[in-house]
Amino acid sequence: MISDINRAWESLEKAEHERELALRDELIRQEKLEQLAARFDRKSGLRETWLKVKIRDLSPKIILSRLLTEDSGKHLMGVVDLLQKHSLIEADINVLGENVKVVIQHLQSFLDTKSKGGYQVCDPQYIQERIKQLEAAYIELVQLASDRHNHLIESRKLWQFFWDMAEEEAWIKEKERILSSGDIGHDLTAIHLLISKNKAAEDEISNQSKQIQALVQTGEDLIAANHFSSDSIRERINEIQTMLANLSKLQQQRMKRLTDAVDYHQFFTDADDVDTWMLDTLRLVSSEDIGRDEANDTTEDLKNFASTIDALHQQAAALGDEDRTAPDVLDRLSSIDRRYKELVELAKLRKQRLLDALSLYKLFNEADGIKQWILEKEKNVGLYGHEQ
Predict the structure, then answer these.
(1) Which residues form a coiled coil (predicted)?
(2) CB 243 within 8 A of CB 172
(3) Which residues of the chain have a pLDDT value below 50?
(4) Which of 190, 322, 325, 374 could potentially form a cystine with 185 if both were Cys, beta carbons 3.0 to 4.6 Å apart?
């Protein structure tokens, strides 16, 4: 009986000892789990804080890029620089994404109660909410970065368009400077050379117009895609089209001016020929030498030459608006008309002198004939007397 009691007491003491060891192990396990939960909260908080800092660093850029055009770059090189900087931000976001995955996997491990002996560090719903918050924050970060990248790409398209437009504008202005030259040549050879250059300029403008039209179409495509600077693009397109139209008009005006200059100089070349003929005729009608025989009459030649002078007047009337009323043209016509009239009068006087001279020469011929007849008669009479 006593031995049974002793065995029962020993069994009780052993059970109490085992229970004490089990309780101590459980307390140790609970303490470790609490430490692990604290470490989780601390690491999770640090990760979440770092992610929020990243979002805070990027969000103002996205907001300002939608509100202030300066954030999209003030010129092409500026936008290129912003895109290079943005690529670094995207690289950081990619690294952040890997860290977020690690944090989420770590959080999800606390949802596995089997490996923890059925013990839960904290409410699973709380862990799931924290996971959703991290995922949502990262998705927002990625979306903001994508929006920023797309905005910068559109800005680069805009400034590339403006850059190309500026080059075309510079080309047009240079051509305007050349075509605005007042040089129309001093003779027909120089004018024809300038006309050849103007035709080359016309071909060059035609070819450049195709390039400008392609650039204009690029702008139209940007406008059709609802680009954020559509108004500025439309204004630039209108400006370059107006400049190109004015350039073509300037080229046509210069071509007409050069063509008129050809007619202008041709008029004076023909007028010189008229003056040369009249000068030669003046020497003839002014000559004191009327010869000893019958001479040709120049009045008929002058009469026929009147058609040449009439043609010169018609040629002058067909000149350009400025040239036909130019003082040098009018003075030249007036001088030719005056000299022609003088020639006609001198020709009439010379004709009369020639007629008088002709009458005199006829009289001399008749006198010489009579004299010869007399001499022959006298000779005959002398021979007859001698024979007697």
Answers:
(1) 198-253
(2) yes
(3) 58-60, 62-69, 292-295
(4) 190
How much is the pLDDT for 283?
85
Distance CA 36, CA 121 (A): 8
Question: Is the separation of the CB atoms in 73 and 159 below 8 Å?
Answer: yes
Q: Is there a contact between 299 and 351 (Cβ–Cβ < 8 Å)?
A: yes
E strand map for the chain: none
pLDDT at 125: 80
Q: What residue type is assigned to position 305 of the chain? A: F
Task: Check: CB of residue 278 under 8 Å from CB of residue 339.
Answer: yes
pLDDT of residue 64: 35
Residue indicated by tokens 């101590």: 24
**Which of 37, 217, 200 is closest to 127 using CA atoms?**
37
What value, to the nearest 5°, has the Cα angle with vertex 81 and ends 76 and 85?
A: 150
Q: ∠ CA 67-68-72 to the nearest 5 degrees?
A: 115
Residue 130, pLDDT score:
83
In contact, 251 and 198? CB cutoff 8 Å: yes
SS3 117: coil
* C-alpha dist (Å) from residue 334 to 75, 198, 274, 299, 329: 65, 34, 13, 21, 9
Query: How many residues are there in the chain?
Result: 388
Gyration radius of the chain's alpha carbons: 57
3-state secondary structure of 286: coil
212 Cβ contact partners less than 8 Å away, ≥ 6 residues apart: 168, 240, 244
- 347-362: b or e for each residue (b if 16 or more CB lie within 10 Å)? beebbeebeebeeebe
